What we know:
The protein has twelve helices and 18 strands. By secondary structure, the chain is an alpha/beta fold. The protein has a seven-stranded mixed sheet, sandwiched between helices. A four-stranded mixed sheet has the order 13-10-11-16, with helices on one face. Strands 3-4-5 form a three-stranded antiparallel sheet, with helices on one face. α3 packs antiparallel against α4. It starts with a strand and ends in a 5-residue tail after the last helix. The model has no long low-confidence stretch (mean pLDDT 97).
Amino acid sequence: MKINGVSYRTIWLAADGAGVEIIDQTRLPHEFVVITLRSSAEAEAAIREMWVRGAPLIGAAAAYGLALAAREDASDAGLAAAYQRLHATRPTAINLKWALDEMIAALTPLPVGERVAAAYARAAAICDADVAQNAALGEAGCAIIAALWEKKKAAGAERINLLTHCNAGWLATVDWGTALAPVYKAVEAGIPIHVWVDETRPRNQGASLTARELNWHGVPHTVIADNTGGHLMQHGMVDLVIVGTDRTTRDGDVCNKIGTYLKALAAKDNGVPFYVALPSPTIDWTIADGVREIPIEQRSTREQTHITGKAADGTLVEVQLSPDGSPAVNYGFDVTPARLITGLITERGVCPASREGLLGLFPERG
């Protein structure tokens, strides 16, 4: 995607061929800062502290983190230790484990002396595959939007109104995004589209990141409070919902940013189509019941009790929202059961949120 006319991915190899550069997403939307990661410890920090976030990008960052680790110690023991450290950074997104497993599978058969070069090559391939997968699922999702637009246009509508939750745009992936890839493809196709952007408390990834990239890309959008979506649906102001996911079970349950489940309930009650966009590495084929089997990350309560924003003089300041002495809790994700989902949008097409639906697209997993 482009920022002020310059094309960017969210992660790329530094000019020296060793460091890994990322956009520090904790500084957005008010500052655009690029950081160079030069060690596996820095890659771990980038994932843990959410300098990078979003399931596909976490996987890409972990892959490059293992490449950085190979520079430090490419032995079996060194790689195994790095795997464990990187895997422990974020528990919910399955892409993290998937990417690390891909890296280990590629490296362990090789002589130690060949592993560093191979690690960088495999990490780059994982990034390229993510871009291709998200571009393809964007086309599949755009077809849904286009068909809906033909019906709405015939009824006199001026635009498609899409609601999304959290950030599942290109900032959450290597490029294109998941939930927003269909939006960008729709814009390219000339479909008039407007996006309702949930603020997505407590970290405000919608207001800070989704709004920022839609703004960069020139896509009409409006930031709303998290609790506004149901009201908009009741009044016919949402034509469809598309969200991303950090882990999807083989039976079609979807784990995404906290609050997604409530949007799915509102959509079901109001007859609004509710889609989930995901590249295939986000599918966890080892589990079936998302509510019981997916580990839900609990993050620092400070994310709930404090907020950072831009002051009148342009400086970034953190302020406390809740009173001293009031406890807080900060669950990062919730699970939306498959029964509430209209369909899953993947790089191989759209399917029902079910085991049969997923196996129809990925028969090799049967």
